[in-house]
Each structure stands twice: as C-alpha cells, then as structure tokens.
Amino acid sequence: MATPEAVAEKRELAGINADYKEKFGFHDPETGYAYKAPKGLSREVVESISEYKDEPRWMRDFRLKALEHFESRPTPSWGGNLAQIDFEDIHYFVRASEKNSRDWDEVPEDIKNTFDRLGIPEAERKFLSGVGAQYESEVVYHQVNEKLEAQGVIFTDMDTALREHEDLVREYWATIIPANDNKLAALNSAVWSGGSFVYVPAGVKVEMPLQAYFRINTENMGQFERTLIIAEEGSDVHYIEGCTAPVYSTDSLHSAVVEIMAKPSSRVRYTTVQNWSQNVYNLVTKRAVAQEKATMEWVDCNLGSKLTMKYPSIYLLGPEAHGEILSIAFAGEGQHQDAGGKIIHGAPRTSSSIFSKSISKDGGRSTYRGLLEVADGASESRSKVVCDALLLDEDSRSDTYPTIRIDENDADVGHEATVSKIGDEQVFYLQSHGLDEEEASKMIVNGFIEPVTKELPMEYAVELNRLIELQMEGSIG
Amino acid sequence: MPDTAGTSIPVCPLAELPPGQMRLIEHDGDKIGVFNCDGTLYAIEDRCSHDDGPLAEGEFDASACTVECPRHGSLFDLTSGRPKTLPAYAPVRTFTTTVVDDTIVLEV
Questions:
Q1: Complex ipTM, two decimals?
Q2: What pLDDT sits at residue A477?
Q3: Which of A135, A123, A125, A132 has its CA nearest to residue A102?
Q4: Residue A264 bridge partners (DSSP)
C-alpha cells in the first residue's frame, strides 16, 4: 500500500502533468509587440536586425559573413533528423518589448505574468545573485546584485554588453566558436539576439548563482541567443539557464551559441535545465576553454524539445586544467535527445570526466555522442567517461557513439558504457516495501540520475526530479 | 620558430606575388602556402591542425596577416602559425622565405 503522502503527491503530480501546456506550454497574445520580422532568412533580414539594434559596423559585417557560411554549408546529415526544418518558415527576430528593465514592475504585464507563472521573480528573491529573462528575441529584464556590481562583476544581456563594453566583447567574440564552426553556429552568428554576457574580475567569487531564463512565445519562432562568460584569474561563478515554450503544432527553432573563457585557477559551472516544448528543435553549440589550473563544469539536463543536438565541449589548454561534463537526457514519446560532450586535453597534467545518463521511454530515442581527445604532449593527463542508458520499454532506443583519440602515450583514459532496463526484481523488491509499481519505477529512475542531481543546487535538483517524475507519469501499465 | 631543413626551393618571381596574394606550392607531396602580407612574406603548411583539412586557400586578411580555415573557421596567425581562435589549438608549421634575385625562395 502506498502511504497517504505518496498518494497525495501522485495525485498532485498527475494533476500538473495533465498538461505541459498548462504549466509551461501556454502562450500570450502578441498585442503590443514592438517588431516582428517577416518569416524567412535573407541578407535584408540580417541587415535589418543589425540596423534595428544600431550595431557597430564590425558586427554587421560579422553577421553577413556568417550568413554566407550558413548558406554555403549543407544541413548536417549525421545525428538527428533535421530534414524537416524549413528555414524559410521561421521568424528570425521578434521584439516583444522596447525596454529592458531592471524592475519587474516595468516589464509589460503579460510578460511579467508569464515569468511569475514560471517562478522566476520568486527564485530571484530567494537564492540568486542575478537574473536575466529573455522573451522572444530579446532580454526584457535584467538585474544583478549590487554588491557584485560594486566588485566589478558584469552580468547583462549581450545586446547591452555590445553597446556598453564593446572592446571587451570584441576581444573574445567568436574566438571560441567561430561563425564557420558549423552550420547552426553560422546561423546563430548571422541572426543572434539576446543572451547573457558575464564578466567576473580576478579573484571575485560569485557566491550565489546567476540565472538566465529563455522563453519562446510566438509560433514558428527562432530564438538565437548568444552567451559569453569570461572568468578572470582565480574567480568563481555558477551560471544557470532554463527554458520553456508554448505547445504548438508547428515547429520552432532554438539555436544558441555559448562561449566560455575560464582563465587560470578560475572555476566556472554552467548548468542547463532544458525543458522546451516538444515542437522545438534545440540545436546548440557550447564550448569552453580552461586555462592553467582552471576548472570548467557543464551540467546539462535535457528533458524537453523534439530534437536536441548538443555536445558541450571543454578545451583544457593550460597545465592542470580540469573539466567535467554531467549530462542527463530524458527522451519520451516523439523525442530524440542527441547529447553528450567533448573534452580535449591540450596540455600536460589535465584531468576530466564525462558522466552521461540517459533515460528512454514510450519510443523515445536517446543518443550519447562524445569525443575525448588527448593531444601529443598532454602527458600525465587522465580522463574517465561513463555512459549509462536506461530503457523503460521495448519500443525505446539508446545509441552510444564515443570517439576517443589518444596521441600521447603517457595518458590514463577509461571508458565505461552500460545499457539497462528496469528489472522486475528491483520493482518487486520495492513493491514488497509498500511502493506501487509506478512509485518503484520513479525511485529507480531517481536513483539512476542521482549522481547528476546531487551536483545541482537544491532548488534545481528538486525541480529536475519533479520534471522527470512528470515525464514518468503513466509509463507503467 | 620556422622549421628549416636546409632545402631551398624557388617559388616564383616576387612580382608575381603582390601584397594580398597567396601562392600554393607542392614539395615532396606536401603543400605549402606562401603569403604576401602587405610586403612581408610568410609561409605555412597547407594543413589545419584541427582536422588536417586544407588551410591556405581560406580567406586571407593581408593587413591582419591571418588566414581563416575554410572548413571550421579557425583563424591562424601567419607570422607564428598559431591559431587565434578555436577549434584548432595547436600551431601549424611555418617556413622561412627569402627573396633572391627577385625570386621568392622557400626554405624547407
């Protein structure tokens, strides 16, 4: 027999889960929008975005060159199925509000209500050092703790950063992910808008996380934020991003570029809780450089979207740099999570680990795709890659594509991969302790992903467990 | 430092490689790009250190003295062979060039 608390919790979860649409999938009317570009991609659209934002000439030129790269590159045929994306059926720039406010009361009512429903202002009050809220193509709210500002920390949206810190932005812009890195990075480079700029001066420790929340509202929308984080020597920062979108019958596209520079002895953690609606293609390029003795960590949780293709990477380019990638993917009905990570050991005595956990159910497909490279000269480096996949039924699928390239004899590299199913014996054992079959399955799944959730701040670990429980609803019987 | 093994090979008359131009030559099966950066000559191997693809025929910026890998966008400093942007992170080989009797000569 289930406990009364468990029954109540289950009822509550079932109620919420009745609809992603209700909790996250609602949409606002587009009344009062400042600008909505017509569908389609062209030189004129790119020029109009740049002109609308009143950008410097070099950025306009960068965008136009990127557009040429995008147009000349074929759509990738490896990984997920991108053939159904119609790049001409997308709005590439939508400005919902003329203002980027530092006070929630100044944010237009509909948009403020949306972020209230998503719990962002409340989270900001409780446990964050700063918040950015992007709605459609641009950031509508941004605030950072005054003490951090006094210490020289910059946390602002990318458009503002380009206006107010142009030299700093230009020094690092596209040096980690060039416009021609891949087709989707080229697309982002051509039409980017919004995203975060974070600069942490030497020695400054940002105690509480900074968070950005990305919301798509319009149908057939493309969101192309661009984020750049620079952590100076000895600094420490944790950045968290979350995202949701309305449920539509037609597809939207999210294609971000995230570049991170972790200077010597700094530590950067970047956490993503991706929960896009299942009509969103999520095609993201994320890459970080870790210099001498720096630590870079990606915590990447993919729950939503129709198709995600995302492989956060870390270039360990200074001696004793350390990189970690923790990846969770949950693929339900109609979803393909093609995720993983890449670590490149380019200097001696560097260390890394990749832990990937995927769960597939109801015909969902999860793919681990990873690269581990140890360059000639990266002596005494060590790395461990562990990929675990859990299949909840016969219809679901899991694939693993690990690539390991070792050009250095003096390196210690380990790779482990497992694929497992929820066992009858495990479920029976838990049932004998009073759990019903569904609760037992949830407990097994929560135990499976626990190595990743324990790395999240408590509020996010609770949220992630809750989201996975929602995804698990109805998976048994 | 440029790699020199002592073999000199003529490239072309200096007049045939004006500022802003690149010439690709082949030696012992290896390709080498010779660049004229606003009057100063530089030479690098025609191989991006990221994935061994061709490099020298990428976009050449003579004033910045850089070439951009046409495959994934890494920008290489022609004076040192070092990449200024990822995804390449290792330098490529460079070669010494001289001008002898109005002819560009490459030391390989």
A1: 0.92
A2: 34
A3: A132
A4: none
